[in-house]
């Protein structure tokens, strides 16, 4: 039997297995089978199972992380998913390099407001951490708000920009009016000036979720050169004018 046929049979045997066997695979080291093992998990029975699943959300190959996030979106509920370690892992997963992981985890938070309420302050801390990193880049490469080639070609900075985008998207989807407003306004005062329009767009989305967003920030976004950015705040400006 050649190698490709052997691999096919291994995958086929992993698609329909018992949940016990699925968790055995997750406990092992064969990363090629783990995405298929996740297909056979429809819930958790104890804290150990929850921790084992979350263990695969970070620091694992892309297919494993993505399968983990998609399963979590369906099963992540209840007390087993509220430990500090799990909440911190969810926070880190929000800004995974794979956008499918990010989308699945944000959907998870939207579906589970009680978990989102616990993750939101951690996400705010992550955003502030990323903004501090941008301050460091600014000292070395010049302002991240300027359209310069050395800014656009900096891989490490662009990765941080990608992380910031998804953290802001998560904040815009999970924030509640009246909660963490001072911290969120301070974030928006920074991100409203970013060169990348997607960051300004997420900033606009966040501000429209607030009860009384700073009018100077709304006005700045209304005058933004990007249609999608200004369109988000247009109704807010008209309503409050």
Helical amount: over 70%
Calculate the terminal CA-CA distance, rounded to whole Å. 74 Å
Mean pLDDT, to the nearest integer, reads 87
Q: What's the story with the biggest beta sheet?
A: none
**Spans where pLDDT lies below 50 across 5 or more residues:** none
What is the general shape?
elongated
Number of helices: 14
* Helix/strand order, N-terminal first: HHHHHHHHHHHHHH
Query: What percent strand?
Result: under 5%
The radius of gyration over CA amounts to 21 Å
- Helix/strand class: mainly alpha
Strands, total number: 0
How would you explain this protein's 3D organization?
The chain is mainly α and 241 residues long. Helices cover 71% and strands 0% of the residues. It is built from 14 helices and no strands. Helix 7 runs antiparallel to helix 8, helix 11 packs antiparallel against helix 12 and helix 13 packs across helix 14. The longest helix is centred in the middle third of the chain and has 29 residues. The radius of gyration is 21 Å and the shape is elongated.
């Amino acid at each position: 039997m050649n190698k490709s046929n052997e691999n096919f049979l291994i995958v086929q045997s992993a698609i329909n297995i018992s949940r016990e066997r699925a968790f055995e695979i997750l406990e092992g080291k064969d990363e090629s089978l783990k995405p298929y093992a996740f297909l056979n998990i429809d819930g958790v029975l104890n804290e150990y199972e929850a921790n084992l699943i979350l263990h695969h959300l970070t620091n694992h190959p892309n297919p494993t992380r993505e399968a983990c996030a998609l399963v979590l979106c369906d099963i992540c509920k209840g007390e087993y998913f509220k430990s500090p370690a799990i909440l911190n892992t969810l926070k880190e997963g929000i800004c995974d390099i794979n956008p499918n992981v990010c989308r699945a985890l944000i959907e998870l938070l939207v579906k589970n407001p009680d978990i989102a309420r616990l993750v939101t302050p951690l996400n705010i801390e992550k955003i502030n951490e990323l903004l501090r990193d941008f301050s460091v880049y600014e000292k070395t490469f010049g302002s991240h708000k300027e359209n310069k080639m050395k800014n656009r070609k900096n891989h490490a900075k662009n990765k941080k920009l990608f992380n910031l985008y998804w953290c802001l998207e998560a904040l815009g989807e999970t924030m509640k009016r009246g909660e963490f407003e001072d911290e969120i306004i301070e974030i928006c005062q920074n991100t409203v000036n970013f060169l990348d329009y997607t960051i300004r767009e997420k900033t606009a989305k966040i501000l429209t979720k607030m009860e009384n967003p700073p009018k100077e920030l709304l006005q700045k976004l209304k005058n933004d050169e990007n249609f999608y950015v200004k369109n988000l705040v247009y109704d807010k400006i008209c309503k409050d004018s």
